[in-house]
Specification:
The structure is a single chain. By secondary structure, this protein is an alpha+beta fold. It folds into three domains: 133 residues, Aminopeptidase (3-Layer(aba) Sandwich); 146 residues, 3-Layer(aba) Sandwich (Aminopeptidase); 62 residues, no CATH class. The strands form two sheets. Strands 1, 4, 5, 6, 7, 8, 9, 10, 11, 12, 13, 14 and 15 form a 13-stranded mixed sheet that branches. The protein has a two-stranded antiparallel sheet with strand order 2-3. Helix 4 crosses helix 5 and helix 10 runs antiparallel to helix 11. About 3% of the residues have low confidence.
């Protein structure tokens, strides 16, 4: 296998066609995140996307879009926004991590949502929750009302409560004036601030990528804005990406005034009910252990979190973090969790801020918000 890297702009139309073809497994798109169009969205704002091409017998076998920073660390394209990471490649493609890092002139690779054989050391495994609507929404809901009768009965009650207290329930798609996305942004930013978490909308390139995706309403790769109205009031908005029959939920938010009727789930029901008309056969809810997913998930796409290191400073740094985590384990909670949580914050900070000064500033903010974040249970 031969590996070589290039800038995204230097790829030929033929290369991009091959990339799209490899993003499909048995004729079905794995995820919009693995398509060249997602890399385009990121590169339009960051201008630093590199692509590694794995070649076998003179033909492309895989494409990996990434950021190769001046710090010697490789991060998958769009991290931490990208819910799927890794190669769009032939089934079972495995790339030697040392060869990958040498090709990029890097010392380490860090990832959170790697699909397929993962390079280096895997620290955690999880899955992205998928709803399979290939049999149609009506059949899907009928089956779910049997397997999770109590939950869906409760959702019927909440819909009736919403109609009784607030007005007719309706779901609309699109956002020609940008007002619905603006509401989503305001609600989500308030949630981030309340929890002490990083406000993604406070990062200029992320804000631009999300807004650009929301405005991309047409084409084979598009943003999809879905909104829930209760009467005349906007109650919830969700924005995601749709391509190849897959809708990937990305950023959901709702107005806390309507929390008693579960507006986020009412909106999800509306998306599922209209999926066929939108050309959607699968809805990907992403990674995470939110309790509601147990009632909706048909299967999970396996994903891995980990890192690949070349010998040297990177390995030493990882060892120091591990020592800090071990030493802190004797402390009472929430202090015992602090090194782990701050360590998880660092990859996100390093991914969104290319220069050291920006990383220092954001980590200082993370330390100042640590007490609020550790105590947050919302």
């Amino acid at each position: 296998m031969r590996l070589f890297e290039t800038s995204l702009s230097e790829l030929s139309a033929r290369d991009r066609d091959a990339w799209r073809a490899l993003a499909l497994a048995q004729g079905k798109l794995i995820s919009p995140y693995l398509m060249p169009e997602f890399a385009d969205l990121i590169d339009a704002e960051r201008h630093d996307v590199r692509v590694v091409i794995a070649e076998e017998n003179g033909a492309p076998a895989g494409f990996f879009a990434c950021h190769a920073g001046a710090d010697g660390v490789v991060r998958p394209v769009g991290a931490p926004l990208s819910d799927y990471q890794g190669f769009a490649g032939r089934p079972g493609l495995h790339v030697d991590e040392d060869a990958l890092l040498r090709t990029l002139g890097a010392r380490s690779l860090v990832y959170e949502n790697w699909i397929g054989p993962a390079p280096g050391k895997v620290s955690a495994r999880s899955g992205s929750a998928v709803i399979d609507l290939t049999g149609g929404a009506e059949a899907w809901f009928s089956a779910r009302r049997v397997s999770h009768r109590s939950h869906f009965k409760k959702m019927d009650q909440r819909r009736r409560k919403a109609e009784r207290e607030f007005g007719a329930v309706r779901v609309v798609f699109g956002d020609p004036l940008g007002e619905r996305y603006a509401a989503l942004k305001a609600w989500k930013s308030a949630q981030y601030r309340a929890s002490g978490l990083l406000d993604l909308f406070d990062v200029s390139w992320i804000d631009a990528v999300l807004a650009g995706t929301a405005a991309r309403a047409f084409g084979p790769f598009r943003g999809l804005v879905a909104s829930l109205y209760l009467g005349d009031e906007l109650a919830a908005v969700e924005m995601g990406m749709a391509a190849g029959g897959v809708y990937h939920s990305w950023i959901p938010a709702y107005d806390p005034r309507f929390a008693s009727v579960s507006p986020g789930l009412l909106l999800l029901h509306g998306i599922l009910e209209q999926a066929q008309a939108l050309g959607i056969e699968r809805v990907d809810l992403g990674r995470g252990e939110q309790a509601y997913k147990a009632y909706y998930t048909d299967y999970e796409t396996p994903l891995s979190t980990g890192r690949a290191l070349r010998p040297g400073v990177a390995a030493a740094g990882a060892g120091l973090w591990a020592m800090a985590e071990t030493a802190s384990s004797i402390l009472p909670e929430p202090l015992a969790s602090a090194p782990v949580r701050l360590r998880r914050r660092w990859p996100h900070t390093a991914a969104i801020e290319p220069d050291l000064s920006g990383r220092v500033r954001r980590m200082a903010g993370a330390f100042s918000n640590a007490p609020r974040r550790l105590a947050f249970t919302g």
